[in-house]
Design a protein that fits this description.
It is built from 3 helices and no strands. By secondary structure, the protein is an all-alpha fold. It is elongated, with a radius of gyration of 14 Å. 3% of the residues are buried.
């Protein structure tokens, strides 16, 4: 798993966040070629989600 260059917001997966906002990751792929990391992630799910802070608005 790679760590996103930007701070990943709470409740988000760092890999999904990085792959969505760092276009250089998919630039090496050929047209219509799937990213192996994204495919593995879709099949196996999120290994880690950045925890949200507890809401205390009451």
């Amino acid at each position: 798993m790679t760590v996103a260059a930007q701070q990943t917001p709470p409740g988000q997966c760092p890999q999904c966040w990085q792959h969505a906002y760092d276009k250089s990751i998919h630039r090496r792929l050929k047209p219509r070629e799937d990213c192996p990391e994204c495919v593995d992630h879709m099949v196996n799910g999120h290994p880690y989600i950045v925890p949200k802070t507890e809401s205390r608005w009451w």
